[in-house]
Amino acid sequence: MSGGAVVVAAHGSDCDDGVNASVFALADRISSTGAFDEVVASFHRGVPHYSTVFDELESSRVTVVPFMTSDGYYCDEVLPRELARNDCFGKISLRVTPPVGLHPDIARIAQDRAIALATASSIALEESSLLVIGHGTRRNDTSRDATVGLAATLSGRLGVIESIPCFLEDTPTIAEACLSSRGRSVVAIVFLLTDGKHARRDVTGGLSLGGSVDDCPAYRGYCDGKFVVCDAPIGTDPAMTELVVDLATRGVVSQAYSSEEVA
């Protein structure tokens, strides 16, 4: 093989083992394609950490694919800072791709999931509001851009009454978006990449669904008298494997990294 090493760089969790386990499973699926010599997961919160993962690899050619929904604080600030702390940094050939959430096929995947979700729940999309739920953070204004862009794209493709971006840690909140929505029903697409307990509680709580974290999506219930159906996070879609492989093989380097910074 001549594909070098691929590092799937996720935020991770130090309090929910299932979050990191799902990223390890993704790395295993990518490895099974045979396209790369090594495929490993790495985390800001978890092991191996961003700051040590290169030192565990045999390959001198490494591609890092941020398993994140957007540019922003973790992708543009935390990840490059921590990668530079590897002992072998500067001695390897390093490429860092844009985050998987900016892959052009994300919109197609979200569109297909919204249609399937509405169909399974007997919802007419043309009479519905669409919520696109992102994480967001007030630490970096660009972190919301991918969610806002995805909501705008889906609005045109799905023919919904409105498509509202909303956030776990930014405004509008999930609850605010749901209460202000004008559709007879609400279809919620969760633009997150892992299905952790924290995300499930916050998403279902914001939608007033009151579901247990052990319930299996799709979640269904009522918010302010409107029927609401909520999908599992988009990162659980099997197509994520193809998107990460595509980013790693195309060799697109994120604008956040100059050639001097990654050489």
Written description of the protein model:
This protein is of the alpha/beta class. It folds into two domains: 121 residues, Rossmann fold (3-Layer(aba) Sandwich); 135 residues, 3-Layer(aba) Sandwich (Rossmann fold), CATH 3.40.50.1400. The chain is built from eight helices and nine strands. Strands 6-5-7-9-8 form a five-stranded mixed sheet, sandwiched between helices. Strands 2-1-3-4 form a four-stranded parallel sheet. Helix 4 links the parallel strand 5 and strand 6. Helix 1 crosses helix 7 and helix 3 packs across helix 4. The longest helix has 16 residues. It is elongated. It starts with a strand and ends with a helix.
Protein topology:
Elements: E1 5-12, H1 17-31, E2 38-45, E3 61-66, H2 73-83, E4 93-96, H3 105-120, E5 128-134, H4 145-158, E6 162-167, H5 174-180, E7 185-190, H6 197-206, E8 219-223, E9 226-230, H7 240-250, H8 259-262
Parallel strand pairs: 1-2, 1-3, 3-4, 5-6, 5-7, 7-9
Antiparallel strand pairs: 8-9
Helix pairs in contact: 1-7, 3-4
Distance between the termini: 23 Å
Mean pLDDT metric? 89
The name of the CATH architecture of the largest domain is: 3-Layer(aba) Sandwich
How much helical structure, as a percent, in the residues? 25-40%
Question: Helix-strand pattern, N to C?
Answer: EHEEHEHEHEHEHEEHH
Number of helices: 8
Number of strands: 9
Widest β-sheet, arrangement of strands: 6-5-7-9-8
Largest sheet: 5 strands, mixed
> In terms of structural class, how would the helical and strand content be classed?
alpha/beta
Domains (count): 2
